[in-house]
């Protein structure tokens, strides 16, 4: 029963997380169509790529005990494909200066991952210490990745508009975080649950902002009076008032 519950949550977490990874495809379709990266930054995608690499490695039998963390391999393996595609598209369509920036950010990140993979494979000879190394670094990178929506939330509060924070993205973020938090607690793995300790409250906060500012926007739109309609109503009132005066 417990094993079935863990697998069900893992599958749902995979679906929600892959949906979250796939969300930026809309942005990159625009980049391809316009052949320009405009004002978009590549850093969030490089950080996400590093996160996926680390947790894919964490879930493999080299670090984990056999295939105990296989769901991590599937979801983060898909994440690697998505994030690597985004980085490559960004690199291809960026300016020469932008290409240098991407390279100077991505190459050190890949070197750090390779160093961690080599150390965890040869410097440590038991799964516990390998998990501490890879999971500890992965936890730090995940915190950085989950903190990125703070920029969007700040913009929502400043503009009082949820235009810059799509509801499907916020919903997928909340579902993925809460499901992986539950899964991490069930398997008693702090490195799996840890990132979602931050991701889940941030997801809830995004949904709260949606409720607050979407409701406000709808109220403001409903309170707007059509000028033409307003004039007609004004004439009707004046005519009605005139009729009352005549009849009196």
Task: Give me a quick take on this structure.
By secondary structure, the protein is an all-alpha fold. The chain is built from 10 helices and no strands. It has one domain (2-247).
Topology, pairings included?
Layout: H1 2-22, H2 25-34, H3 43-59, H4 70-93, H5 96-123, H6 127-147, H7 149-159, H8 167-186, H9 190-223, H10 227-247
Task: Explain how this protein is built.
There is one protein chain. With 248 residues, the protein is mostly helical. The chain has one domain (2-247). The chain is 83% helix and 0% strand. It has helices at 2-22, 25-34, 43-59, 70-93, 96-123, 127-147, 149-159, 167-186, 190-223, 227-247.
Return the string of H and E elements: HHHHHHHHHH
What fraction strand? under 5%
Largest sheet: none
Number of strands: 0
Class derived from helix and strand content: mainly alpha
Low-confidence stretches: 229-248
From the alpha carbons, calculate the radius of gyration and give it in angstroms: 25 Å
Per DSSP, the total helix count is: 10
Distance between the termini: 83 Å
Number of domains: 1
Helical proportion, percent range:
over 70%
**Arithmetic mean of pLDDT:** 82
- Label the overall shape: globular
Characteristics:
248 residues, mainly alpha, 10 helices, 83% helix
């Amino acid at each position: 029963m417990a094993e079935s519950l863990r697998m069900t949550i893992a599958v749902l977490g995979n679906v929600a997380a892959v949906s979250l990874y796939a969300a930026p495809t809309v942005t990159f379709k625009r980049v391809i169509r316009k052949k320009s990266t405009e004002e978009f930054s590549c850093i969030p995608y490089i950080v996400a790529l590093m996160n996926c690499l680390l947790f894919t490695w964490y879930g493999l039998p080299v670090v984990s005990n056999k295939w105990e963390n296989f769901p991590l391999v599937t979801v983060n393996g898909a994440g690697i494909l998505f994030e690597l595609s985004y980085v490559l598209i960004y690199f291809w369509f960026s300016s020469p200066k932008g290409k240098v920036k991407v390279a100077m950010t991505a190459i050190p990140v890949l070197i750090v991952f390779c160093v961690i993979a080599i150390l965890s494979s040869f410097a440590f000879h038991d799964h516990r210490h390998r998990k501490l190394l890879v999971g500890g670094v992965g936890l730090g990178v995940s915190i950085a990745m989950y903190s990125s929506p703070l920029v969007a939330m700040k913009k929502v509060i400043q503009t009082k508009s949820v235009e810059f924070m799509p509801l499907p993205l916020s919903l997928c973020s909340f579902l993925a975080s809460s499901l992986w938090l539950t899964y991490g607690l069930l398997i008693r793995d702090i490195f799996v649950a840890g990132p979602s300790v931050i991701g889940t409250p941030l997801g809830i906060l995004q949904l709260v902002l949606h409720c607050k500012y979407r409701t406000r926007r709808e109220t403001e739109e409903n309170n707007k009076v059509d000028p033409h309609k307003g004039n007609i109503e004004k004439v009707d009132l004046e005519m009605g008032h005139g009729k009352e005066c005549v009849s009196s």
